[in-house]
Specification:
Layout: H1 2-11, H2 21-32, H3 38-47, H4 53-63
Length: 64
């Protein structure tokens, strides 16, 4: 369910200020009341084929 929440967060993020993995960690820890590492979020993001925040920002800029 953390992966589903990750997808939901990224789908609804501000295109001008995409969420960093560190910010996602804070949001996930708050929602699920558990500790999770940034590297774990990065691993999940890569498994699902989601780009980093800087790459998503570039993609958003090109799609405008």
């Amino acid at each position: 369910s953390i992966k589903e929440y990750l997808v939901e967060l990224i789908k609804n993020e501000d295109p001008e200020r995409p969420l960093s993995d560190n910010k996602i960690v804070v949001l996930v820890e708050g929602r699920f009341d558990t500790k999770i590492g940034r590297r774990t979020i990065t691993k999940y993001r890569l498994q699902m084929g989601i780009e980093s925040s800087s790459e998503r920002k570039k993609t958003y800029q090109f799609s405008i």
